[in-house]
Design goal:
The two termini are about 15 Å apart. α3 (about 50-75) crosses α4 (about 80-85). The protein has one domain (about 15-355): Alpha/alpha barrel (Glycosyltransferase). The chain has helices at about 15-25, 30-45, 50-75, 80-85, 95-110, 115-140, 150, 160-180, 180-210, 225-240, 250-255, 255-285, 300-320, 325-350. The protein is mainly α and about 350 residues long. The radius of gyration is 19 Å and the shape is globular. The protein has 14 helices and no strands.
Length: about 350
Amino acid sequence: MTVDGPDGDGPVGDESGDGAFLAQFRPTYFTASMTLGATAVGAEQLGLHVLALVLLALAGLALTATAVLVALRVIRHPAAVVDDLTHHATAFTVLTTVAAFNIVGGATVSITGWTGLGWACWAIGLLLWPPLLYASLFSTIIASPKPDLAHGINGTWFLTTVSTQTMVATTALLLTRTGANQGLELLALGGFGLGVVLYLIVMTLLFLRWVFVESPPDEDDPPSWIAAGAMATTALAGARLMALDGTYPLLTRVTPFIEGLALVGWSMATFWLPLMVAVQVWRHGVHRLPWRFSPSMWSMVYPVAVYGIATYALANVTGLDVLDPLPPIFLFLALVGTVLVGQGMFRSLARPTDSSG
């Protein structure tokens, strides 16, 4: 059993045909439904309701199909699943499951008002969050032998923050339907703080790798975009918590603290996005590397989509009208990215025996 690449998209085993396709089908594909769900919310924020409904339907289809295939992989290829969970480079990709259910659930509530379906998606994400988070962390802690920093850590570790903050964002949205609820308030506030701390831990380690370990241009690096996505998701979660101010006693007492961290999250996401673009120009423009689809490429579009909706939510709750021009720009970029990566995904899935994704 082998695993290639830092993003966990490489081949597993030596099967062929449909068996090989299923064995290689990792949770990384959940990033497609994450991106579609976030883009759908962005369209709804700007009053494009029909487009939002179409994107939400696609997100729901992608979520369902991915969940079924991942479940089949767990049943038919448990050794491959265990191999992923016990590998530093792929262990945290399972957390895309949590993020996808929360994002699609939150998008459903925001766009259609179907609270029941939103609660169902939230519940699935919440039930999966502790076991998947702890399994990922525990497996990397007890692993032996351990890889060095260059081979052991990559951008997928930021999924600890993304999964946590998507849960917080959806919890905050559902709190508007329940009224004051100490349990949900504590879950949202505690999760928000935990997500920030997890980001700081991972960012410290990954930044050391980026600046002190040589990164060849052919390194498969789309997961590094999650550095921006994690902070944009944090800003979105913070903005939704701030919107609850005045109705929920626990959250009201700490609203200035939440606002500060939300603005820091938005600033960090703003800082990272140009650097991520520069890296791609260096790889594909300067070194002429060809574009090749892998499911982790959705990780390049998700930060763009969630940055747009986080900016809109933050501007709305803080009154920062100066940010108003940004959401339409990032919605457009997210739509373009969704189309391009979506085409690559369908071409790849049409010939699974020839694709490493």
